[in-house]
Amino acid sequence: MIFTGHTAEVMSLAFHPKRGHILCSCDTKNEIRFWDLVNHSCLHTSQEATKQVRFQPPNGNLLATASGSHINKIDVESHHLVHCLLGHDEKFLSVCWDPSGRYLASVSENSVRLWTIESKVKCLKELKVSGNMFKSCTFYPGYSLLLVIGAYKTLKLLKPLEIWVDVNNWFERQQQEQEMQRIRDENKVAMKVVEELHRKKMSQNREGEKDKDDPMGRGQNQLDNNRGATY
Predict the structure, then answer these.
(1) 76: three-class secondary structure by DSSP
(2) DSSP state of 79
(3) Which residue has better confidence, 58 or 208?
(4) pLDDT tier at 156, thresholds 50, 70, 90
């Protein structure tokens, strides 16, 4: 089965959390499509999503879409734009809802933002870094306070409402902890090398002491050496 209609690369897909036969997709030309998998048809098309689409849990009443440097919050039933979230300086790379549907996390290359949509939409916390660190994000299922960030060669586990209280120093502390861990690992390797050298030296010393305590053995060794030289 193939569904056609998009005129550019399809960038993101999302199933409705309550109506499993409803699938949403978006493409690089900013088009959103809602599909009915049972009837094999396109239910609706709209605009304002070039990167990602995500239904709000648990009921799917809203759809979060990432397009350029802003996030759109769309009413799924009316398909009307409810709110536009601004604040990132760069293009969005990822957006995700927490399991309760109360919070929304967004990621651009140099920042992570945590939004609340209860009563009034606002940014609760922001974490900024430099160096193109962040790429993707997802909340841990069933636990809204744990956010996983995909970064360059690493995954970062954050508790947004706890850690981001001091966002200016958090990443610096993370880098310091990583550097300290690297130093500890290098020290462990160095200690193993020293211990191995010490063990070998002690073993050699014990062998030398045995030879001193056994003159017959030294004589036999000398005799064997002389015979080898004669031959």
Answers:
(1) coil
(2) -
(3) 58
(4) confident
Bridge partners of residue 31, in order along the sequence? 47
The DSSP output letter for 56 is P
Which of 158, 191, 187, 190 shows the shortest CA–CA distance to 173? 158
Percent of the chain with pLDDT over 90: 27
Q: Taking the CB of residue 2, how many other CB atoms lie within 10 A of it?
A: 4
d(CA 57, CA 80): 18
Taking residues 119-136, report their average pLDDT: 77
Which among 131, 124, 134, 137 is positioned nearest to 163, based on CA atoms? 124
Which residue reads 């390797």 in tokens?
189
pLDDT score of 149: 86
User: Does the pTM exceed 0.85?
Assistant: no
CA dihedral 166, 171, 174, 178 (to 10 degrees): -170
Q: Which residues of 116-155 are buried (b: 16+ CB within 10 A; e: fewer)?
A: ebeeeeeeebebbbeeebbeebbbeeeebebbebbbeeee
